[in-house]
Design brief:
The protein is of the alpha+beta class. The chain has helices at residues 3-34, 36-39, 46-82, 85-91, 96-136, 231-238, 246-255, 262-276, 280-286, 289-292, 301-327, 333-355, and strands at 150-153, 159-166, 171-180, 183-191, 198-207, 213-223. Strand 3 and strand 4 (183-191) form a beta hairpin.
Amino acid sequence: MSIWKRYFYREFIVAILAFLFGIYALYILIDVMAHLKNVTDKHSTLSMWVEFYLATFSKRLDVLLPFSILLATVRTLCSLQSRGELVAMLASGISKKTLLSPFLVVSACCSLLVYANYEWALPSAIPKIVNLVETRFGKESLENEAKDLNEVMLNDGSKIIYSKYNSETKLFSNVFWIQSTDSIFHIKTLSLNSKIPTGKWVDHIARTASGALENAQSQELHEFTEMNFTLESLKNSVTPPNEQSLLQLLKQTYLYSSSCSPKGSEITATFLYKLTLPLMCLLAFIAPAPFCMRFSRSMPILMIYLIAIAALFCYGLVLQSAFSLGKSQVITPYLSIGLPWCIAAYFFGRKYNGAV
């Protein structure tokens, strides 16, 4: 590898890391100040907070990394131009396309890093955050709050209806197991930590000879040996789409491919959103690069920073809106999420090719 390429790689990577960890350090500082009461609590430990912010870093990586690449692109290219290094490189016969190749390679690697985070780190990070917020901080997680009742179909045709499921502790809350029209169990908490599902504070509601449903028996602890389900199907049913890996979402999308249910649309929209969002790392470089390669006596660096940040923020809002439209079945997820990316690829792709 030539010396100038190593120099460009080093400058760009150092800038990305500086912005990435600098922004996240500022986020941690603001968050700690906002939750100072929890920090000073006697039950709070340093290891707990380190674990919490490591998991939060995984959760926020798909937003932090594109913005860090955007800022690093503007900073590095404008700095190289102000020092006359780009002019010297171009005068020596190196094309703009070759000069920008190290930046493109690093941006592509960052996209792969976000894909890896979606596949391996994030599915375990989100349940960790929810568990810490609820068990250590003593408050409900808005992200995992159930707005509607959820259901799981068992292999024997019976149905479990529940209000909430914690994937970290494997606990259902406020559960109704409809075994048949004549037998219903109400369970305050149902644990799946053992081979046999175990319920606490169980009421068995059975139909009497007169045809009325009455509480036949109440128990503090009961093992449900007759519950028939597979762990894989149960996991896919109770795990929210945003907590599933890309491979899991792909399998779910295939299963719901012929379904028009709201859950099928949510799974498809989530899969397409996660599949395309890492491309923001490439877009964060390709979009501002042509404007930073213009040669003039007075380059409006501040305006480039402000417009680039505002444009990326607005495009993120567009993607969020497209995801909401696809999830709610207003527009098919393939159209709502694919259209913004096609427009961005056409406009910025042409602009980048014209500049290099």
